């Protein structure tokens, strides 16, 4: 490892500690709203585009993850299906309504979490606007700093449309190294996963305090894992396409 490697690793860890502290109050509020949705037998819809889809993958059907998650997805948003095309798709006005309608989003008891570093393209902004209009809690995991430096292609930003904002504190452009003029080592994926895990921890504690079980997935590669997941599959399978 180069001499700068350990220094950058510590700087990255410090960034995660910083966003944990910075978002302490917002994390409590978001966890409370998401847990309320799950307890009311609603779903937590998660959404993103481009590399923010990594946050959606982290939220869906993984060991230790929340079972009451319905990922929002359109194949044209994934860079693996066309890198430049995925950017154009995120900028398409009207796609958010199409995706929400196709997913059977009900509003009300259902909640929405949107991952987007810049939060300025029509897809994440319109998702948040439509979900709030339907009476749902909307949590944005985004960087208002990055939003301020980016062109507002939707007239407003995800942070402005969301009810609760979890700030990744990621700079515009996402890169973090070298510190003076960053060009590589993007931060947003790690920040998204960290904040999502913080939400899971707080929801688990809320469930324990309420005397109920938080529906979570067990690893299917552990003894008894498949059996432990059977109840979640039976309960959510009909409402979350792809589980079965």
UniProtKB/TrEMBL annotation:
<dbReference type="GO" id="GO:0097367">
    <property type="term" value="F:carbohydrate derivative binding"/>
</dbReference>
<dbReference type="Pfam" id="PF13580">
    <property type="entry name" value="SIS_2"/>
</dbReference>
<dbReference type="InterPro" id="IPR001347">
    <property type="entry name" value="SIS_dom"/>
</dbReference>
<dbReference type="GO" id="GO:1901135">
    <property type="term" value="P:carbohydrate derivative metabolic process"/>
</dbReference>
<keyword id="KW-0413">Isomerase</keyword>
<dbReference type="InterPro" id="IPR046348">
    <property type="entry name" value="SIS_dom_sf"/>
</dbReference>
<dbReference type="InterPro" id="IPR035472">
    <property type="entry name" value="RpiR-like_SIS"/>
</dbReference>
<feature type="domain" description="SIS">
    <location>
        <begin position="30"/>
        <end position="209"/>
    </location>
</feature>
<dbReference type="GO" id="GO:0016853">
    <property type="term" value="F:isomerase activity"/>
</dbReference>
<protein>
    <submittedName>
        <fullName>Sugar isomerase domain-containing protein</fullName>
    </submittedName>
</protein>
């Amino acid at each position: 490892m180069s001499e700068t490697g350990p220094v950058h690793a510590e700087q990255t860890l410090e960034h995660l500690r910083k966003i944990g502290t910075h978002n302490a109050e917002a994390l409590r509020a978001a966890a409370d709203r998401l847990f309320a949705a799950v307890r009311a037998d609603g779903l937590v819809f998660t959404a993103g585009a481009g590399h923010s889809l990594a946050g959606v993958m982290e939220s869906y059907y993984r060991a230790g993850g929340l079972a009451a998650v319905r990922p929002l997805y359109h194949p044209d948003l994934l860079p693996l299906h066309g890198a430049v095309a995925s950017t154009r798709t995120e900028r398409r006005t009207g796609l958010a309504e199409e995706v929400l309608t196709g997913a059977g989003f009900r509003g009300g008891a259902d909640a929405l979490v949107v991952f987007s570093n810049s939060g300025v393209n029509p897809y994440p902004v319109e998702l948040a606007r439509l979900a709030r209009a339907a009476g749902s809690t909307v949590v944005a995991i985004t960087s208002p700093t990055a939003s301020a430096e980016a062109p507002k292609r939707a007239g407003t930003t995800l942070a402005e449309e969301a009810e609760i904002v979890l700030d990744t504190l990621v700079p515009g452009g996402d890169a973090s190294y070298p510190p003076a003029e960053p060009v590589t080592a993007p931060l947003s994926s790690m920040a998204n996963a960290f904040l999502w895990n913080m939400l899971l921890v707080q929801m688990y504690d809320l469930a324990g305090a309420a005397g109920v079980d938080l529906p979570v997935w067990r690893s299917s590669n552990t003894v008894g894992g498949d059996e432990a997941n059977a109840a979640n599959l039976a309960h959510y399978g009909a409402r979350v396409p792809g589980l079965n």
